[in-house]
């Protein structure tokens, strides 16, 4: 049983973030072990088919070996430094990892085993091996993850919106209690069998909470320097990630119009006006007008985060979709 110990300043330093680099690495492990990630089978079938491409297969070869290890080396997925970091931004942090940390991380994760040739290269030639790894992760991101990233990110943002509202209404104790069944809050510490047995004293750095679509359990991500460590936990509503519902051609489309019915369907996960316009092929002005009508009717709500407004179907809108669409068909 491991624990993370909080001080007074650490509680005030709790924040949420989304890590596209973590999702990229974790998604490859999911594709390598589909039996443990049945909820992602629709995506895994498409992702595994990409392995037949010889060009891609050569670039992602390091990931195949790393996915066979008990765990990724800790330097591969550093704790996110900001709430909405981009993939290339996080990849640059990985590429700047010090050689000694690469060697230590590979050794701790099992890279010295005789059957781990790439792991041995990480220990003997950390600079060139790390360059291969960053290229492999970029190749996998571009081929398998980026096309689905708007959908994945919407689910993760919905989880963050839910947790922040829970924090405002019920406090941080309730957030930790409901974060994941394996976690519990005791006194001044977060306790879980998924946390490092040696424990971690935050020492005033705070803690970043990062929902994940591809995490099967909780993970603690180390952070060199002043960046707070991050606790990755399985996101809510991952079961809805790959489902399809068609709101066109039914009674809802006749009632609202095809464009508004489609927009309502797309707001089952939070999305900005720009994201909605890209998904449905309408102009920003048209999307804004339709959203105004849906909002006035009480079917969608908007919440602002910094400069962005994220629109989400209200309880009434969700109920209307469920009533109109019926059971979701298999992907």
TrEMBL record:
Domain HTH arsR-type residue range list: 251-325
Domain of life: Bacteria
Gene3D superfamilies, alphabetized: Winged helix-like DNA-binding domain superfamily/Winged helix DNA-binding domain
Keywords in alphabetical order: DNA-binding, Transcription, Transcription regulation
Database matches in Pfam families: DUF5937, HTH_20
PANTHER family: ARSENICAL RESISTANCE OPERON REPRESSOR ARSR-RELATED, HTH-TYPE TRANSCRIPTIONAL REPRESSOR CZRA
Name of this chain's protein: DUF5937 family protein
Organism: Streptomyces racemochromogenes
Lineage per the UniProt record: Bacteria, Bacillati, Actinomycetota, Actinomycetes, Kitasatosporales
